[in-house]
Design brief:
The protein is of the alpha+beta class. The chain is built from 19 helices and 20 strands. The chain has two domains: about 280 residues, no CATH class; about 190 residues, Serum Albumin, Chain A, Domain 1, CATH 1.10.246. α4 runs antiparallel to α8.
Length: about 550
């Protein structure tokens, strides 16, 4: 029997078509896992440069009735043929936002050598077949139908096509036209890009998904699709091989756990970004943020410095734990976070020699079902490679571009390595009961956006929608970045105190946070208004 607080469940995600697929899975008797995977698969069809079966990500699953609380990490791994020095002689510079390196010929940024071994499909399949209730084929069917019948190109999708790759990278339009298959899917016969509102069909992807519905993930990693992928890579100088696909493994394990204001917070472990959320909140627990006043000068200064301190620690210490020792216990210890808080109290300013900002080429889904099961999953293509294998329909990730081409550094190239990302699917529990489920796309800004929404909900007791729409700022560099709804009177005082303040033109910035709150009156969900998403209850055919 469903709990009255949960109703029949709720889904919040960045694409309305994907949200509806998740809600329909709940109505068909599926649980939160079924809904999240159905949602994720549809997102890969209707938002095909943000995520997909050839991408990467991280998910947190909470199924209290089964005693399950786990995370699955499915970051892409660099192919076995990767050499630490393979691109050292090609280095031109670093992208202005610090997310990737510029090489001669853009070989790491777009094309066949930019692809890491995909993890998304295997994680979807493992999660759904282990913990879902519906047949796998039923969960895949909505994505097949959207690919076959087509979907209207939404403004957010088209905006990325025109403006989603900047700061020295290959343009998004060039990525779309990089292969003949991409040109057929995304352009008219006369070579012009398809426009907002046009119906985009992808029958090749529909056929690929049908094969996956029938054969599971194995057909992609060891079967006939794997053979087609490997042949295309070999013919075009790619690093990815059949052995890389066959050898790929997800990483399942316990969430990273911390506390904040008496609540339990669970998030993901490295190479994901949950450690940044945990460290920032550990620092800020030493301050009475409510007394400072929401988005006051002192509040922005304090929170921004905590963000900078966590960013500096991340840069110095966090990466793939299979390759480097990540000192989680020390970074999250009360001794360390209290010492960092004292630096803020003394007025010290942390130097972070990097640019703020990172392309939001990612998406997110949150689900809570009628039994109180919950899933929060962030998945992505990174900066997409532009490669579409003829006949398969999907685009591959382009995650090789974020590795450091200079040997001997924490983020340097190495075979089988996973690169740090700031994905941080997060849950909060109060008195042992589920309280909040959230996450976001947004690159380096994900941890900053998620943390601020958590602070809004916990320290300022905001309902989930108010917590998400409140103006945000970011401190991932020596500047403080603010969205355009932060008052000028506030930023002028910060500038007079010596801070470099960068005002972003958008009203909504610094990740696109999606969340669900469990309240005494039921589930409440919200999608960041900076994107196209929505939250929808499975109880009735209306938005939350």
């Amino acid at each position: 029997m469903t709990n009255s607080r949960f109703g029949k469940g709720m889904v919040a995600a960045a694409q309305p078509e994907a949200v509806e697929a998740g809600v329909n899975a709940l109505r068909a008797g599926g649980n939160a896992v079924d809904a999240a995977i159905a949602c994720g698969l549809v997102a890969g069809v209707v938002d095909p440069q943000m995520c997909g079966i050839a991408g990467f990500g991280n998910a947190q699953l909470y199924l209290p009735g089964e005693g399950v609380h786990t995370c699955v990490d499915f970051h892409g791994t660099s192919p076995a043929g990767t050499r630490p020095d393979q691109w050292e002689h090609l280095v031109v510079g670093e992208t202005r936002d610090g997310f990737g390196f510029l090489l001669e010929g853009n070989v790491n940024d777009v094309g066949y050598q930019s692809i890491t071994t995909p993890g998304s499909l295997l994680a979807y399949y493992e999660a759904q077949t282990r913990y879902g209730r519906l047949p796998w084929a039923d969960v895949v069917t909505p994505a097949i139908e959207w690919a076959e019948n087509g979907f209207p190109i939404r403004p957010a999708v088209h905006h990325w096509w025109l403006e989603g790759a900047t700061m020295g990278r290959v343009s998004a339009v060039e990525r779309l036209r990089h292969t003949p298959a991409g040109r057929r899917i995304y352009f008219h016969d006369d070579g012009t890009l398809r426009g907002i509102g046009e119906n985009l069909r992808n029958p090749d992807m529909a056929r690929t998904l049908q094969r996956i519905a029938e054969g599971g993930a194995n057909v992609f990693y060891r079967g006939e699709i794997a053979e087609e992928i490997a042949a295309d890579m070999a013919a075009n100088g790619g690093l990815l091989s059949a052995d890389d696909l066959a050898g790929y493994r997800t990483v399942w394990g316990e969430p990273l756990r911390t506390t904040y204001r008496g609540r339990d917070v669970t998030t993901n472990r490295p190479p994901g970004g949950g450690v940044m959320v945990a460290e920032i909140m550990g620092i800020l627990e030493n301050f009475d943020l409510a007394a400072l006043g929401h988005n006051s000068v002192d509040y922005i200064r304090t929170v921004s410095e905590a963000m900078k301190l966590a960013t500096a620690d991340k840069d110095a210490h966090v990466g793939d734990p299979e390759f480097i020792d990540v000192p989680l216990d020390r970074l999250l210890s009360t001794t360390h976070t209290t010492a960092l808080a004292e630096r803020i109290r003394r007025g010290e300013r942390t130097n972070v020699d990097r640019m703020a900002g990172e392309p939001p080429d990612t998406t997110h889904v949150c689900v809570v079902d009628g039994d109180g099961n919950a899933v929060t999953m962030t998945h992505s293509l990174g900066m997409p490679s532009g490669v579409v294998t003829d006949g398969l329909g999907f685009m591959y990730n382009g995650c090789m571009g974020v590795f450091d081409p200079r040997p001997g550094r924490p983020g340097s190239l190495a075979p089988g390595k996973r690169r740090f990302s700031s994905l941080c699917p997060t849950m909060v529990f109060r008195d042992g009961e589920l309280d909040l489920v959230m996450g976001a796309p947004g690159g380096t800004q994900i941890a900053m956006g998620v943390t601020q929404v958590l602070l809004n909900a916990i320290d300022f007791d905001m309902p989930i929608l108010d917590a998400i729409i409140a103006p945000r700022f970011s401190g991932t560099s020596n500047a403080i970045d603010v969205c355009n709804r932060i008052p000028h009177s506030i930023t002028q005082r910060l500038e007079s105190d010596g801070y470099d303040v960068i005002r972003w033109p958008g009203s909504y910035a610094f990740a696109l946070v999606h969340g669900i709150a469990v309240t005494p009156d039921g589930l409440r969900g919200a999608a960041d208004p900076g994107g196209d998403g929505m939250a929808m209850s499975a109880t009735e055919d209306v938005d939350s």
